[in-house]
Amino acid sequence: MRAVKEAVHVSTAPSTVVCREDEQKMVLDFCKACVQQEKAGSLYVCGCPGTGKSLSMELVKQQVIDWAKMEGLQPPEVLAMNCTSLANTSVIFSKILGMHQPKKKSIGSASPLQHLQNLYSNKQAQSSSKMMLIIADELDYLITRDRAVLHDLFMLTTFPFSRCILIGIANSIDLADRFLPRLQSLNCKPMVVTFRAYSKDQILSILQERLLVLPYIVFHQQALELCARKVAAASGDMRKALSVCRSAVEILEAELRESASNTGLTSAEGDFVSPQTALAHEVFPSQENNTVRIDHMALALSKTFRSPIVDTIQSLPQHQQIILCSAVKYFRGGKKDTTVGELNKSYIDICKSALIPPVGILEFSSMCRVLNDQGLFKLGQSRDDKFKRVTLKVDEADISFALQVQIHHYCTDNILSARVIIVSYRYPFIWNREFVCLGIVFSNTALLDMWAVSNLQLSCSIHDLKV
Fold this sequence. Notes:
The protein has helices spanning about 1-5, 20-35, 55-70, 90-100, 110-120, 125, 150-155, 175-180, 180-185, 200-210, 220-235, 240-260, 275-285, 295-305, 310-315, 320-330, 340-355, 360-375, 395-400, 430; strands at about 40-45, 75-80, 130-135, 165-170, 190-195, 265, 270-275, 340, 375-380, 390, 405-410, 415-425, 435-440. It folds into four domains: about 20-195, P-loop containing nucleotide triphosphate hydrolases (Rossmann fold), CATH 3.40.50.300; about 200-305, no CATH class; about 310-400, Arc Repressor Mutant, subunit A; about 405-465. About 45% of the residues lie in helices and about 15% in strands. The chain is α/β, with parallel strands linked by helices. It has a five-stranded parallel β-sheet, with helices on both faces. It has a three-stranded antiparallel β-sheet with strand order 8-10-9. It has a three-stranded antiparallel β-sheet with strand order 11-12-13. It is elongated. The protein has 20 helices and 13 strands.
């Protein structure tokens, strides 16, 4: 399992950054233009955490050097740093000056910043020097009370004989507008490249790309899709997706270890096999026995994304849960809000489908107020409760996640014994499916195809399962 965990570890840097080709091209083209024209410039890379900013800039850094060599141009000097590692914010100017004058010590009372400003104002001093690519990650660490350090850093690219190509990286999308207003007035505002949060399809593609290095299938496709869908809905943070996958692998590993320690196995010759040997045999040679299923992924996700909202929904009385489901079903058509009276009609229809007696309109209105107090609904103002506007304040994904129940149903017939792993929805008519079959685990721990359940003659019917 070590190779699997390494493949999905955050620190494992891939050779290419999938789904960030457009952003990388924009930055690379900017750097190429600066090197070709021997002209300074500044660029700001922003986006939410885990969207591939730092990793993309690492690749661009090498691409610029390789391109310059191939074109017969002088490759730029590169200074890449994480600003959080600086002893204090002004140290960044000492580092830049050290790249220009590695053997010279500062003489006199002038600061490193003043030396740089003089250097970039002197044509003769800069005529033979290389271009310098400065990549400053965690740029917001340089924000001081007077904003001087950040402003002076970007101003270095505006001096007449500056040779700096500055790339700043941070999460804040509007950092340039908020902290560098003077640059805009001088028409020196940096170019901005935004890395958007990863979508479900992008997260899935990146996970699949990382797993290609393994010689065997580790994750069921449905497990990866579940991870991608949940992470995309929550944050689009790729690091979070990798962390969830790693957690799912550890859950599987613990399951195999427990199985090996609780089961006495015998070899083909009839000799007893120790739990340690059984685990090693199960983890390495027989890869079909240790695939991360959707139930492993669901557990990993619940540990990572366990939220007060999910806990609140799960603790609600049945009728309040049905009211939430009614809102989900009603708003699926694209509507943003409705009235309590209209929502009550949807609620009654669902109760009839579930053969559950509905509550009266007064109690229904009272329940809506409770959901409003808990932050799940937003109720408008009206003298008549039936005409109050209702807006759903939580995501459908959180509601569906809260109202699904995993069942491990055991059944036996004359041929085999099996554990059917099913996610059943408390109110299946809302989600347009009664259950999702996660897999069938036989007594010898071999996992069949996830959808093979319909082909087995089990002693009980899946449709008889109740939550």
